[in-house]
Amino acid sequence: MTDDDAVRPAIRQALPPSSDGMRIGLLGGSFNPPHQAHRAISLFALKRLQLDRVWWLVTPGNPLKDNGGLHALAERAAAARKVAADPRIEISCLESVIGTRYTADTIDYLRRRASRLRFVWIMGADNLAQFHRWQKWQHIAAQVPIAVVDRPPRSFRALNAPAARALARYRIPEAEASRLAGRAAPAWVYLTGLKMSLSSTGLRNPDGSWKSF
């Protein structure tokens, strides 16, 4: 019996329903707490990238952040479902089921398990600015197309960050964003036009509890 066989029922529950050829956006994060900017980014990506679904991958913990004030995974997932409020946005705790901590490993798993789906990794400009610090970031870029959503005033810093410079020749024009899901990686697009500055950090109290949202 393989490791996958041992947790197969849980995997089926953690993987949202899909059909061959669907274009799926992947939005990973702690969602501590989830908020309307997560929803706005997802709806924006659904439209601009012509996606069928966006999966919110609620992580057990971010390796680049202090997870001391992280709320329980079940609590964050439940709150994410409440905030998402759209049938095209699916909530998944896949990483806790398959035991991955790094995005590169999660993407590798999804490409093996759901090879007939077309995935796009979605990130905000703030994440592009630190993308070069992610574990195996070059591998991520080589495995799945990436959509970066502008988050002013971080635009200049993000587009001049090491990863953006290294991947500059693979950037496609924003006018071709709807074709991104069908392109072979590496390929990425920078999407402008969404003006929302909410952040999870700004929605947490000093003691780690969540403000009303």
Automatic annotation (TrEMBL):
Pfam families per UniProt: CTP_transf_like (PF01467)
Molecular-function GO terms, alphabetical: nicotinate-nucleotide adenylyltransferase activity
Keyword annotations of the record: ATP-binding, NAD, Nucleotide-binding, Nucleotidyltransferase, Pyridine nucleotide biosynthesis, Transferase
Enzyme Commission (EC) number: 2.7.7.18
Pathway it works in: Cofactor biosynthesis; NAD(+) biosynthesis; deamido-NAD(+) from nicotinate D-ribonucleotide: step 1/1
Keyword Kinase appears in the UniProt entry: no
Major enzyme class: transferase
Keyword field contains NAD: yes
Boundaries of every Cytidyltransferase-like domain copy: 26-172
Xref: Gene3D superfamilies: HUPs
Catalytic reaction annotation: nicotinate beta-D-ribonucleotide + ATP + H(+) = deamido-NAD(+) + diphosphate
NCBIfam families: nicotinate (nicotinamide) nucleotide adenylyltransferase, PRK00071.2-2, PRK00071.2-4, PRK00071.2-5
Biological function: Catalyzes the reversible adenylation of nicotinate mononucleotide (NaMN) to nicotinic acid adenine dinucleotide (NaAD).
Similarity annotation: Belongs to the NadD family.
HAMAP family: NaMN_adenylyltr
The protein, known as: Probable nicotinate-nucleotide adenylyltransferase
